[in-house]
Every structure is written in structure tokens, then in C-alpha cells.
Amino acid sequence: MRIAIASDHAAIDLKAELRDWLIEQGHEVADLGPDTTDSVDYPDYGYKLAAVVAEGTAERGVALCGSGIGISISVNRNPGVRCALVSEPLSAALAREHNDANCIAMGARLTGSDMAKACLASFLDTDFAGGRHQRRVDKLSNPPSDTDTIEPFQ
């Protein structure tokens, strides 16, 4: 599988470990940076990862930052990407099975390397179930246009 991986400075060590592990597993990996621990802005790398996955150059993406939160938000700004922030293998599998997630995000300060590998393995080994989940995934890319008529506070 072709997998792109990106991080910020806080997750550079985890990124390198996961990149090498993915290559050992037989995957083709594109490391989108950064290459040093110099401070960088996670949105820059999240946007870069999202573009590569959305355009189909990579089949899956791995986004890493200190908590995983910031980079997952930036990746999800691209409508062609569904990025799930996970911390254990079950949520990684469900992200694929129910949500057809094509990216996974994790926090290097919160998730150890063994758990990150277990999450990534679960994510990559799980197929999208389709069926009733497909219409829900379709709605993620095509939100209803009538939401502007909702008046929640009266």
C-alpha cells in the first residue's frame, strides 16, 4: 500500500519509527516531513498530507503531532479526506470499517510506539464495510444544503 506520513516537531521520533516499521511491513512510504525537531506549524504538514491522500497519490495517510488533535483538524479541512484521531486499535478499526477513514491521526505525547503500531496495523488491516455505512460516509462529503434554515435557539 502507498502510505504518506507527516508530523510536526513534537512527533518526529514517532514518525520515523512508524515510517521504518511500515517499510518493514512492505508498504511504500512517503515521508512528508519535517526532517528536524525545529519548531514547525502542524497545519502546514496536515494540509500537505491531506492533499496527497485526496488526490490519490497515497492510499492512506498517517498524521502525527503532540496530541494528534491539531493535525487531525487540519487534515480534515480537505473534503476528500476522512481523518480519525485514535488511541487504541478498536477505534482505528472502526474508523475504517464504519467511516471509511483514509487517514489516521495519533498523538506522540499520548500514544507509545507499540500502541501506535497496533493502531496503525488495525487501521491498515480493516476494510470498509459499506452497506448502511456508505450513505453516512456519502453525507460527510455532501452535507445537506437546508441546514441554514435550522433555528436551534428560539
TrEMBL record:
First-tier enzyme category under EC: isomerase
Recorded GO MF terms: ribose-5-phosphate isomerase activity
Keywords: Isomerase
Parts forming coiled coils: none
Superkingdom field: Bacteria
Binding of D-ribulose 5-phosphate, residues: 8-9, 66-70, 99, 109, 132, 136
Active site (UniProt): 65 (proton acceptor), 98 (proton donor)
Transmembrane stretches, start-end: none
InterPro entries: RpiB (IPR004785), RpiB_LacA_LacB (IPR003500), RpiB_LacA_LacB_sf (IPR036569)
Region entry Disordered, spans: 134-154
EC number(s) given by UniProt: 5.3.1.6
SUPFAM superfamilies found in the cross-reference section: Ribose/Galactose isomerase RpiB/AlsB
Any one GO BP annotation for this protein: carbohydrate metabolic process
PANTHER family in UniProt: DNA DAMAGE-REPAIR_TOLERATION PROTEIN DRT102, RIBOSE-5-PHOSPHATE ISOMERASE B
Family in the record: Belongs to the LacAB/RpiB family.
Protein name (record): Ribose 5-phosphate isomerase B
Lineage, top ranks: Bacteria, Pseudomonadati, Pseudomonadota, Alphaproteobacteria, Sphingomonadales
